[in-house]
Amino acid sequence: MEKIKIFDSGLKLIVKKMSGIYTACCGVFVGVGSSMENTATNGYSHFIEHLLFKGTKKRSALEISEEIDNVGGQLNAYTSKDVTCFYTRTMSEHTEKSMELLSDMFFDAQFDSEEIEREKKVVIEEILMDEDMPDSVCHDLLAEAFYGNHALGMTITGKPQNIKKATRESLLSYKNRCYVPSNMCIALTGDVDFESACALTEKYFEKRFNKKRSEPVLSLVPAVTDRQFKYAFKEVEQAHIAVAFPGAEFASDKYYALGIASFMLGGGMSSRLFQTIREKNGLAYTVYTYPSAYKNNGYMEVYAATTPKNTSKLVELMKSEIKRFTEDGFKEAEFNKGKEQLKGNLVMGQENPLGIMSAYANYFLKTGEVYDLKKRLKRIEAITPEQVLEASRKCFDFSVCSAVYVGQKTDDFRCVENFIE
Q1: Residues 376-413: pLDDT tens digits?
Q2: Where in 84-217 does DSSP place strands (E)?
Q3: I want to staple 16 with a disulfide (CB 3.0 to 4.6 A). Which of 2, 218, 340, 405 is the partner?
Q4: DSSP secondary structure letters along 177-228
Q5: Which residues, in sequence order, are CB contacts of 305 under 8 Å at separation 6+?
Q6: Of 355, 350, 46, 343, nearest to 174 (Cα)?
Q7: H or E, element range at 231
């Protein structure tokens, strides 16, 4: 049973005790990512994530790593479009050590000027690494095409020039504005009880904050999506093709309806796109649909990679299959399969303490509500075929989609633009 507490500062705590588990996961989640940035600060959220590992007032970067390694645990972090997370997983007897270490990193990271300059090189290498992955370039370019100048169109790692220009003062100013208790959630899962979690959160986090409740961080501005075709030429063996359609905001009824549609259309080996493009025509190894959802925005991506000479055929099949899905509808058996896949995906994600920790904290930050698996399953069960078809027809609209091509420069690469009507 999950339990929550909201402290005087606005800091949120959620705890999920799990039976049969001998480890504890501790996570510090901050509602900040590239979607909260602007053109001048793009990449700051991700850069700050790196810098919190580079030494505190009482620990060097090496000592931070050794402290967790010495107890056989894991320490890691990630930044997404709208959430940054720092977390540990250790045997439960080391839970307090984990909370103290995360607190030390969060509050007392030094932001040493020499470390900042050194880490700039590391982050720029990460950006360049992403540039060497055509599928990653394709996904980033699709967000840029679909969202245009909106913050959701910017990359998580940012541009090299932003990282180069970043100063200790500008980074700390950004951190102090966004890393506030009203914009945070502490999550603990596994072999941990609520009372001790409350005491540890009070000791290592709540007492470090100003008791005056902080001003809320500006929320994500609703996006006005663009209708664009973008491309990037890369000397790679495959052509990477993706299309973005208007989706649904996180955890809405439409979000669940489109989740079912996504599984039917491109969510598994028996899905329509997989069967048509890979099994029947052998045009691609990878083909799928994927919904990206945020607090008040979302889009549905359709992606595939193929040999450049097959680009036109792939585009034709993808487009015709999507149109057949929205125009002709689907049989009840196909709908039921999609619904069960969505439910199964949620349930299986709840068997890992790290997955549970991330799901609960993200849900709490984005909705202000406690993640309730049974309630979510009931909402999915209540979705009707009519709702899925209606949501799909509004979503898969070629007059408001964006498309991208990443691959070799060929005579017909612009055929991908044919997705846009």
Answers
A1: 999 999 999 999 999 999 999 999 999 999 999 999 99
A2: 84-91, 184-190
A3: 2
A4: HH--GGGEEEEEEES--HHHHHHHHHHHTGGGS-SSPPPPPPPPPPP-----
A5: 134, 135, 238, 239, 240, 241, 284, 285, 286, 287
A6: 46
A7: strand 229-233
Backbone angles phi, psi at 78, to 5 degrees: -155, 155
Q: Which of helix, strand or coil describes residue 9?
A: coil
Rounded to the nearest 10 degrees, the angle between the axes of helix 168-178 and helix 113-131 is: 80
Contact yes or no for 326/392 (Cβ under 8 A): yes
Residue type, 348: M
Q: How far apart are CA 32 and CA 151, in angstroms?
A: 12
For helices 385-395 and 253-266, the axis angle rounded to 10 degrees is: 80
CA 373 from centre of chain:
19
Torsion over CA of 379, 381, 384 and 385, rounded to 10 degrees?
Answer: 130
Instruction: Please give the Cα distance from 10 to 177 (Å, whole number).
Output: 15
Please give the structure tokens belonging to residue 289: 């649909």
Query: Rounded to whole angstroms, how far apart are CA atoms 108 and 99?
Result: 14
Q: Taking a C-beta distance cutoff of 8 angstroms, is the pair 207, 102 a contact?
A: no
Q: In this structure, what token pair is assigned to residue 103?
A: 């607190």
Catalytic residues: 49
